[in-house]
User: Fold this.
Amino acid sequence: MSFVPFALLLAGSFLVIHKLVESRVRQSLLDSLRDADHAAAEIRKKGEMQNSRFLQIVGENPALKAGLQLLMAERRNKAARMTVEDQLREICDSLHFDYLLVSDPDNKLLAGVYREGGALPAMDVARTQPPSNGIIPFSNGTMFQVTSIFINQGDENIGRLALGEKFDINSFTVKAVLIHDGKVITSNLSPAILPREVETAMSHCHGGECELELQGETYITLPADSIEFGGGFRLFTLQNVDSANGPVQKILQRVFVVAGVLFILVALVISMLSSRTIVQPLA
Assistant:
């Protein structure tokens, strides 16, 4: 009569503590994802501001302006395009840019170069549609995050100049997945986790916080909406709940086992003493 209620009370207490700890770990993971999101957004904001300053300087280059005006007047002139590409290569080499292009006021590419290995090949003008800002992927798997400004001659807009830096998902301090229209473009998850597994698991994650399972492990994810990528690209950051929760739960299990054993011993002693107080008067 005394042992069973106390055993149920102890089991209930253990269950409540387990749920509270699990909830606290989950909240800590969400907070860490938000902090990582804000930190990455601040870093990228400062980078974009610096790139904009560089672009303002480059955009005032008289030779580049002259070449751009000539190319706009004679778009089929191969020599004019090559001249502008050479100017862009020279700027990229001197300022260590990864991607630089010029387009007309309607954002149609006129000329551009990008870094591939140690070279700066020209872009395919017919097939490349440059974003004004955001991410542009290349067929070789390289991606650039782009910042752009307008090039003005007096009060007239004569084109747009875009600068890009290579997008490296490994620069994030947490696990991250870049998705475009529901397809995984790149991630820093384990190579054993295939992109189609991630796409299937994240198919129901449309808004904010979301929980998903990958290869038997539970992850919690948040969209990194503080960073604007544009063009249908969205970045999701992830944390492994099982990895974070496992060590804490092991400690709790040890505490529960020790507390349970001590409870059983104390309950047995109390039961024996209670029995004697009843039996001895009867005897």
About this structure: The beta strands are 99-103, 109-114, 134-137, 143-153, 156-166, 175-180, 183-187, 210-214, 217-223, 233-240. The chain has a mean pLDDT of 78. The longest strand covers residues 143-153.
